[in-house]
Amino acid sequence: MSELQSELSPPAGEAFLVAALYHFVSVPRFAELRAPLQALCEENGVRGTLLLAHEGINGTIAGPAEGIQTVLAYLRAQPEFAGLEHKESRAADMPFLRMKVRLKKEIVTMGVENIDPNRVVGTYVEPKDWNALISDPGTILIDTRNDYETAIGIFKGAVDPQTKTFREFPDWVRNNTGLHNRPKIAMYCTGGIRCEKATAFMKEQGFDEVYHLKGGILKYLEEVPAEESLWEGACFVFDERVSVTHGLQEGEHTLCRACRHPLTAEDVTADTFEAGVSCPHCFEARSDEDRERFRQRQKQMDLARKRGEKHLGS
């Protein structure tokens, strides 16, 4: 077996390579890239979502290792994405149903005009140095993710803004004047992209010492041994794996198909849980009509599964 074949051979039971990537860069021709990128992914058995905008690219894709390498090579052959970095993990099953290349106004939606991580951004901190920073009493640690993500995992001692969407984060910062009482602000998110804009926003708001975890939680879980880790719980990911743990191993969470909230083993034993219809997190917020609609959708999904097909609503 050649060295290249050895590199591309997946571990037993982990057939698919998953690549998470983003890159902030000016791309005036971003719309021109959509069609050829979509076609290339489909030709190579790659699925997932890639977002293209004037400010760059963001997304996660999965497929056979050779297919992922082909797509990454194509992206890096574009002058704008020559410096593109990515993070890899493995999945036993294909974690995406289809391939989508979408054109967007922002590659991560914060809703604040003129926030440009290429102009100003926080200080990157490598995973190996993260524990020392967040253990410093002079540091306030902020999780920039949303409430359904923080519900299943968070760094020890972190402040959870309990935001429903990233658009709420700027107002949360503006309304928490006490943040100025700490000399150091440390921030983190899943893969690093939200912190690019969050730290840029904090700098614009007058905060001086602003730091963020390079590569996000995913890189930390990949590189920092479990016995040294300050991470508690699992990390939510936006694909069919639902969550990952140390070493980027697939977690034990499932997903409520009605509200997309990650579910624990305890959640699925609750009286309010019905597969594809409701869970403890959304039961009170839904009407009987909603649940009947979800029930019919679940029935179609079950029928498609029996035929050996993937139902697009799953």
SSE layout:
Layout: H1 3-8, E1 16-24, H2 30-43, E2 47-53, E3 56-63, H3 65-77, E4 85-91, E5 99-103, E6 123-125, H4 127-134, E7 139-143, H5 147-150, E8 153-155, H6 169-175, E9 184-188, H7 193-204, E10 209-213, H8 216-223, E11 231-233, E12 235-236, E13 243-244, E14 254-255, E15 262-263, H9 288-306
Parallel strand pairs: 2-5, 6-10, 7-9, 9-10
Antiparallel strand pairs: 1-3, 1-4, 2-3, 8-11, 12-13, 14-15
CATH architecture of the largest domain: 3-Layer(aba) Sandwich
Q: Could you tell me how far the N terminus lies from the C terminus, measured between alpha carbons in angstroms?
A: 39 Å
Per the CATH scheme, the topology name of the largest domain is Oxidized Rhodanese, domain 1
H and E order: HEHEEHEEEHEHEHEHEHEEEEEH
Low-confidence regions: 1-9
Described by the principal axes of the CA atoms, the overall outline is globular
In total, the number of domains comes to 3
Overall pLDDT: 92
Name of the top-level CATH class of the largest domain? Alpha Beta
Strand percentage? 15-25%
Beta-strand segment tally: 15
Describe the structure.
With 314 residues, the chain is α/β, with parallel strands linked by helices. The chain folds into three domains: 88 residues, 2-Layer Sandwich (Alpha-Beta Plaits), CATH 3.30.70.100; 111 residues, Oxidized Rhodanese, domain 1 (3-Layer(aba) Sandwich); 61 residues, no CATH class. 29% of the residues lie in helices and 22% in strands. It is built from nine helices and 15 strands. The strands form five sheets. Strands 4-1-3-2-5 form a five-stranded mixed β-sheet, with helices on one face. A four-stranded parallel β-sheet has the order 6-10-9-7. β14 and β15 form a beta hairpin. α2 packs antiparallel against α3. The two termini are 39 Å apart. 37% of the residues are buried. The N terminus is likely disordered.
